[in-house]
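Page 37, top half.
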Amino acid sequence: MVTPLDIIKKKRAEAVARIIGRGYLSTKRVYVGMATCEIAAGSKEVMEVFRQAISNGGLTDVYLSQKGCAGRCNLEPTVEIVEEGNIPVKYGKVNPERARQIIEHHLKNNEVIEEWLI
């Protein structure tokens, strides 16, 4: 016989699996600006570079999401990286090539690219 406690335990396990599966507990978080103006500046292509790196296994323990308007139209597209134990950093004027460099230097080797910071 299935008890109410069994049902709750099952639902909890499913919720925890979803949280982990979606990367919500990752130690690195990447937020790509996806407001209308950032999309016009090329942020969809930037997002796709990060998405491909994660799906290809080139990046692990990374949560990728979008963010709204940062109010910095002259610096778009923007990418914010939040890492456990570090101060968040925000890169400006990110194009697909810069996104690949951010992946290689910052996300894989912990080397912040100072000249692109805003």
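Page 37, bottom half:
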Amino acid sequence: MRRKSFTLLELVIVLIILGVLATLGISQYMRSIEQSRGAEARSILGQIRTSVLGYYMSISTLTGIDNTAVGIGTTNDLIPSSCRASHYFNYALSLITSTTLRIDGTRCSAGGKTPTASVGIGGIQLTVDANAGTDTWSMSPAYR
């Protein structure tokens, strides 16, 4: 009488297939997590943009604008200007002209927030031309 059972080779092949599927699933999961972090950063950049345009509407220039004028800083109630436990990005303004500035959202890479190697360290930039009313987005491939 013969017993029906799996051979060792069949079991090894099944384990290899499961390992490959798990690896693919984890990398896809990490990619989607990073994209959601990018969506949060784009939302915060939009909030900063609104503050920048409010500043421009009140004095008709962006000259003299700084991080604190639009709510970017180091205290917990402000949008972070440096990496901290509650955010995966930090933000900063760069004045280009008296009516144009760039808002940078840079991905934190320390404090347990290191992105996976497939994502890499990058960021999202929003260039605001307050006079023309135009916005230009630029971002690392992981956040598109």
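Margin note: The longest strand covers residues 100-107.
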